[in-house]
Amino acid sequence: MESLSYVPIIMTDLNTPWEKVVHLGVPVTFPPKSIISRHDAEKAPGMYLIRRGGVRLSNISLSGADKVLFYLGRGTLFNEVPMLQYAGSGTFTSMEHTEAVFWPRKRINEEFIREYPDLILNLLESISRKMRAFYFQLCSQQQYDGFVNVCRALYSMHLFNRAGEDITPGLTRLELASYLGLHRSSLHKAMARLRDEGIIGEYSKKKLRLLDADRLKEYAETPRRD
Protein backbone atom coordinates (compact mmCIF):
# COMPACT_ATOMS: atom_id res chain seq x y z
CA MET A 1 0.00 0.00 0.00
CA GLU A 2 1.27 3.47 -0.85
CA SER A 3 2.28 5.85 1.90
CA LEU A 4 0.09 8.91 2.27
CA SER A 5 3.21 11.09 2.03
CA TYR A 6 5.21 9.29 -0.66
CA VAL A 7 4.61 7.67 -4.03
CA PRO A 8 6.87 5.22 -5.89
CA ILE A 9 9.15 6.89 -8.44
CA ILE A 10 8.90 3.92 -10.81
CA MET A 11 5.31 2.71 -10.96
CA THR A 12 5.04 -1.04 -11.41
CA ASP A 13 2.33 -3.71 -11.30
CA LEU A 14 -0.57 -1.25 -11.59
CA ASN A 15 -2.26 -3.34 -14.26
CA THR A 16 -1.28 -6.97 -13.68
CA PRO A 17 -4.93 -8.14 -14.19
CA TRP A 18 -4.41 -7.38 -17.90
CA GLU A 19 -2.09 -10.38 -18.12
CA LYS A 20 -5.16 -12.55 -18.65
CA VAL A 21 -5.75 -10.99 -22.09
CA VAL A 22 -2.18 -10.80 -23.41
CA HIS A 23 -3.08 -13.56 -25.89
CA LEU A 24 -5.50 -11.09 -27.50
CA GLY A 25 -2.78 -8.51 -28.07
CA VAL A 26 0.25 -8.10 -30.31
CA PRO A 27 3.73 -8.63 -28.79
CA VAL A 28 6.09 -5.71 -29.44
CA THR A 29 9.70 -5.06 -28.53
CA PHE A 30 11.50 -1.74 -28.12
CA PRO A 31 15.30 -1.47 -28.05
CA PRO A 32 16.80 0.82 -25.38
CA LYS A 33 16.08 4.54 -25.88
CA SER A 34 13.47 3.92 -28.57
CA ILE A 35 11.06 6.81 -28.97
CA ILE A 36 7.45 5.68 -29.13
CA SER A 37 6.10 8.71 -30.95
CA ARG A 38 2.67 10.24 -30.69
CA HIS A 39 2.38 9.95 -34.48
CA ASP A 40 2.38 6.17 -34.18
CA ALA A 41 -0.31 6.43 -31.51
CA GLU A 42 -2.46 8.53 -33.84
CA LYS A 43 -2.08 6.10 -36.75
CA ALA A 44 -2.84 3.02 -34.64
CA PRO A 45 -4.39 4.21 -31.37
CA GLY A 46 -4.17 1.69 -28.61
CA MET A 47 -2.28 0.96 -25.44
CA TYR A 48 0.55 -1.22 -24.20
CA LEU A 49 1.23 -3.41 -21.18
CA ILE A 50 4.88 -3.54 -20.14
CA ARG A 51 5.97 -7.11 -19.47
CA ARG A 52 9.70 -6.51 -19.22
CA GLY A 53 11.80 -3.36 -19.02
CA GLY A 54 10.35 0.11 -18.63
CA VAL A 55 9.46 3.40 -20.29
CA ARG A 56 9.45 7.05 -19.33
CA LEU A 57 6.92 9.71 -20.24
CA SER A 58 8.46 13.12 -20.83
CA ASN A 59 7.49 16.47 -22.26
CA ILE A 60 9.36 19.57 -23.34
CA SER A 61 9.03 22.35 -20.77
CA LEU A 62 8.71 26.05 -21.58
CA SER A 63 12.46 26.40 -20.98
CA GLY A 64 13.15 23.72 -23.59
CA ALA A 65 14.18 21.06 -21.06
CA ASP A 66 13.05 17.46 -21.41
CA LYS A 67 10.91 17.03 -18.26
CA VAL A 68 10.21 13.51 -17.03
CA LEU A 69 6.64 13.04 -15.82
CA PHE A 70 6.57 9.31 -15.07
CA TYR A 71 8.74 6.22 -15.01
CA LEU A 72 6.69 3.09 -15.70
CA GLY A 73 7.82 -0.50 -15.18
CA ARG A 74 6.58 -4.05 -15.58
CA GLY A 75 2.90 -4.80 -15.20
CA THR A 76 1.86 -1.24 -16.10
CA LEU A 77 -0.13 0.13 -19.02
CA PHE A 78 0.97 3.13 -21.05
CA ASN A 79 -0.34 5.24 -23.95
CA GLU A 80 -3.88 5.00 -22.57
CA VAL A 81 -4.44 8.77 -22.56
CA PRO A 82 -3.44 9.26 -26.23
CA MET A 83 -5.63 6.26 -27.04
CA LEU A 84 -8.64 7.81 -25.31
CA GLN A 85 -8.05 11.30 -26.71
CA TYR A 86 -6.81 10.34 -30.19
CA ALA A 87 -3.90 12.68 -29.52
CA GLY A 88 -0.38 12.63 -28.19
CA SER A 89 0.45 13.64 -24.63
CA GLY A 90 4.21 13.76 -24.37
CA THR A 91 6.74 11.20 -25.56
CA PHE A 92 7.23 7.67 -24.32
CA THR A 93 10.81 6.40 -24.49
CA SER A 94 12.03 2.92 -23.57
CA MET A 95 14.59 3.05 -20.75
CA GLU A 96 16.05 -0.36 -21.60
CA HIS A 97 15.18 -3.38 -23.72
CA THR A 98 11.42 -3.45 -23.27
CA GLU A 99 8.85 -6.09 -24.13
CA ALA A 100 5.17 -5.21 -24.20
CA VAL A 101 1.78 -6.24 -25.56
CA PHE A 102 -0.29 -3.87 -27.70
CA TRP A 103 -4.08 -3.75 -27.96
CA PRO A 104 -5.76 -1.48 -30.53
CA ARG A 105 -8.42 0.93 -29.38
CA LYS A 106 -11.02 -0.78 -31.57
CA ARG A 107 -10.61 -4.08 -29.74
CA ILE A 108 -10.81 -2.39 -26.35
CA ASN A 109 -13.96 -0.48 -27.34
CA GLU A 110 -15.75 -3.33 -29.06
CA GLU A 111 -14.70 -6.28 -26.93
CA PHE A 112 -12.97 -5.47 -23.66
CA ILE A 113 -15.52 -2.95 -22.35
CA ARG A 114 -18.26 -5.54 -22.79
CA GLU A 115 -16.45 -8.72 -21.77
CA TYR A 116 -13.86 -7.47 -19.26
CA PRO A 117 -15.39 -4.67 -17.16
CA ASP A 118 -12.96 -5.54 -14.35
CA LEU A 119 -10.06 -4.57 -16.61
CA ILE A 120 -11.66 -1.25 -17.49
CA LEU A 121 -12.09 -0.53 -13.78
CA ASN A 122 -8.42 -1.39 -13.24
CA LEU A 123 -7.50 0.97 -16.09
CA LEU A 124 -9.43 3.83 -14.47
CA GLU A 125 -7.85 3.11 -11.09
CA SER A 126 -4.34 3.18 -12.57
CA ILE A 127 -5.01 6.49 -14.35
CA SER A 128 -6.11 7.91 -11.00
CA ARG A 129 -2.92 6.70 -9.31
CA LYS A 130 -0.80 8.26 -12.06
CA MET A 131 -2.64 11.56 -11.63
CA ARG A 132 -1.96 11.41 -7.89
CA ALA A 133 1.74 10.70 -8.50
CA PHE A 134 2.01 13.62 -10.92
CA TYR A 135 0.27 15.96 -8.47
CA PHE A 136 2.58 14.76 -5.69
CA GLN A 137 5.65 15.37 -7.85
CA LEU A 138 4.49 18.84 -8.87
CA CYS A 139 3.72 19.88 -5.30
CA SER A 140 7.02 18.54 -3.97
CA GLN A 141 9.07 20.49 -6.49
CA GLN A 142 7.21 23.68 -5.66
CA GLN A 143 7.20 23.29 -1.88
CA TYR A 144 10.66 21.86 -1.10
CA ASP A 145 14.20 22.77 -2.08
CA GLY A 146 16.43 20.49 -4.14
CA PHE A 147 18.18 18.84 -1.20
CA VAL A 148 14.92 17.93 0.54
CA ASN A 149 13.47 16.58 -2.71
CA VAL A 150 16.52 14.34 -3.14
CA CYS A 151 15.98 13.06 0.41
CA ARG A 152 12.30 12.48 -0.29
CA ALA A 153 13.14 10.54 -3.45
CA LEU A 154 15.68 8.33 -1.69
CA TYR A 155 13.33 7.72 1.22
CA SER A 156 10.60 6.80 -1.26
CA MET A 157 12.99 4.21 -2.70
CA HIS A 158 13.48 2.89 0.82
CA LEU A 159 9.72 2.48 1.20
CA PHE A 160 8.85 1.02 -2.20
CA ASN A 161 11.88 -0.44 -4.00
CA ARG A 162 13.48 -2.72 -1.46
CA ALA A 163 14.90 -6.12 -2.37
CA GLY A 164 15.69 -7.76 0.95
CA GLU A 165 18.02 -5.45 2.86
CA ASP A 166 19.21 -3.68 -0.28
CA ILE A 167 17.41 -0.92 -2.16
CA THR A 168 17.16 -1.15 -5.93
CA PRO A 169 16.61 2.39 -7.30
CA GLY A 170 16.13 1.33 -10.92
CA LEU A 171 17.32 4.79 -12.04
CA THR A 172 20.70 6.22 -12.94
CA ARG A 173 21.71 9.51 -11.34
CA LEU A 174 20.87 11.33 -14.57
CA GLU A 175 17.40 9.75 -14.68
CA LEU A 176 16.78 10.65 -11.04
CA ALA A 177 17.92 14.24 -11.61
CA SER A 178 15.60 14.53 -14.62
CA TYR A 179 12.65 13.26 -12.58
CA LEU A 180 13.37 15.76 -9.79
CA GLY A 181 13.91 18.65 -12.18
CA LEU A 182 17.48 19.14 -10.93
CA HIS A 183 20.80 19.69 -12.65
CA ARG A 184 23.18 16.76 -12.27
CA SER A 185 25.56 18.90 -10.22
CA SER A 186 22.78 19.72 -7.73
CA LEU A 187 22.00 16.03 -7.30
CA HIS A 188 25.71 15.27 -6.90
CA LYS A 189 26.07 17.89 -4.14
CA ALA A 190 23.02 16.58 -2.29
CA MET A 191 24.26 12.99 -2.39
CA ALA A 192 27.77 14.06 -1.39
CA ARG A 193 26.31 15.79 1.67
CA LEU A 194 24.33 12.68 2.59
CA ARG A 195 27.44 10.52 2.21
CA ASP A 196 29.55 12.91 4.31
CA GLU A 197 26.93 12.76 7.07
CA GLY A 198 26.92 8.97 7.00
CA ILE A 199 23.32 8.68 5.80
CA ILE A 200 23.90 6.89 2.49
CA GLY A 201 26.72 4.93 0.92
CA GLU A 202 27.05 4.02 -2.73
CA TYR A 203 24.36 4.81 -5.27
CA SER A 204 23.89 3.11 -8.63
CA LYS A 205 20.95 2.02 -10.74
CA LYS A 206 21.09 -1.41 -9.14
CA LYS A 207 21.89 -0.54 -5.55
CA LEU A 208 21.45 2.17 -2.95
CA ARG A 209 23.13 1.59 0.38
CA LEU A 210 21.13 3.31 3.08
CA LEU A 211 23.06 3.67 6.33
CA ASP A 212 20.70 5.77 8.44
CA ALA A 213 17.03 5.63 7.42
CA ASP A 214 15.88 7.64 10.45
CA ARG A 215 18.06 10.64 9.64
CA LEU A 216 17.11 10.45 5.96
CA LYS A 217 13.45 10.52 7.00
CA GLU A 218 14.09 13.59 9.17
CA TYR A 219 15.49 15.48 6.19
CA ALA A 220 12.73 14.17 3.91
CA GLU A 221 10.08 15.48 6.28
CA THR A 222 11.60 18.93 6.68
CA PRO A 223 8.77 21.49 6.99
CA ARG A 224 7.72 22.95 3.66
CA ARG A 225 9.09 26.30 2.62
CA ASP A 226 6.71 29.25 2.46
Automatic annotation (TrEMBL):
The protein's name in its UniProt record: Transcriptional regulator, Crp/Fnr family
SMART domains: HTH_CRP
Family annotation (InterPro entries): cNMP-bd_dom, cNMP-bd_dom_sf, HTH_CRP, RmlC-like_jellyroll, WH_DNA-bd_sf
Classification via PROSITE patterns: CNMP_BINDING_3, HTH_CRP_2
GO biological process: regulation of DNA-templated transcription
All residue ranges annotated as the HTH crp-type domain in the record: 144-214
Molecular function in Gene Ontology: DNA binding
UniProt keyword list: DNA-binding, Transcription, Transcription regulation
Native source species: uncultured delta proteobacterium
